[in-house]
Amino acid sequence: MFKSIAVIAVGTLLFGALNLCTAQEQEPILIKFSHVADEKTPKGQGALLFKQLVDQRLAGKVRVEVYPASSLFGDDNELQALADDKVQLLAPSLAKFEKYTKQLQVFDLPFLFDDLEAVNRFQKRAKGRQLLRSMEASNIIGLAYWHNGMKQLSATKALQVPTDAAGLKFRIQPSSVLEAQFYQVGATPVAMPFAEAFDALKSGKVQGAENPWSNIYSKQLYTVQPFITETNHGVLDYMLVSNQRFWFSIPHAIRSELEGIIDEVSFEVNRQSEEANLADRQRVQASGRSQIISLSDEQRAAWRAAMQPVWQQFEADIGAETVKAAQTVNRKSRN
Ligand code: LMR
Question: Which residues form the pocket of ligand 1, taking CB atoms under 6 Å from any ligand atom?
């Protein structure tokens, strides 16, 4: 009698342990994808498409949770959260990696890229690919570039020539290049997280900003910025990054599948971003809340001349050959 009870007890324990093992083995890998943009932006849509494709193709093996609009982590703590493995995927703007590498500052240089196609060419060439690996020493692996778009200057007053910006405060991303760019035109840059930009503009803490149309529209910045000058003076793009140790801990077959999905998603994001920005430009225009100012060739040349000295200032940090490689991707002639 005691013997059979003991056998049953041992059997139950073994069965339970076996079940636990199987459950542990089957526990899907959790990827938390945090970002600061709105869901209806190129980055927001990219994150959702990534989740959708992973749900379809890696169900039971990988689970993705997307946290948009700084709902989990914001600009000031998301990269630390990645280091601490509290989040596994991020897509910060290229301006936000300065603490980890100076090389990516190339993307912030004003008037370096003529348009988004030029940026695209640079990202695809050897130098651009190499920059994806520029933060390995900090355990950050770059998985892809995602476009948002070219930046426009907005303000409480009409900005036609560089001197119009003098004396104004502009919200910037935390980047020394962007800081220097605004000092060049006599303005005062104020670095702050994206989540604080709207309130800072609304309250008058700052009077201007620089953003692509998708952010101007989705964050409703146009409702507090009566003038937007179509400068296309720089780019706001992203790097999809992960914690390198986490990434390489994913079993090879699953990681390859994830990298294939990332390629597909990146292709889609990059194919649609320009159109999405144009559609948001139309929406801003249709709202009638903000006047869109176009620059003449001479006016644009004046902005370029005022801001371009910044290149010299940062060339040594970035690497002269990186700046040169970026310049060679432009096709249009200079005005
Ligand atoms: C910003 O801070 O202005 C942008 O980097 C926000 C974003 O992620 O598009």
Answer: 36-37, 93, 148, 173, 194, 211, 215, 236
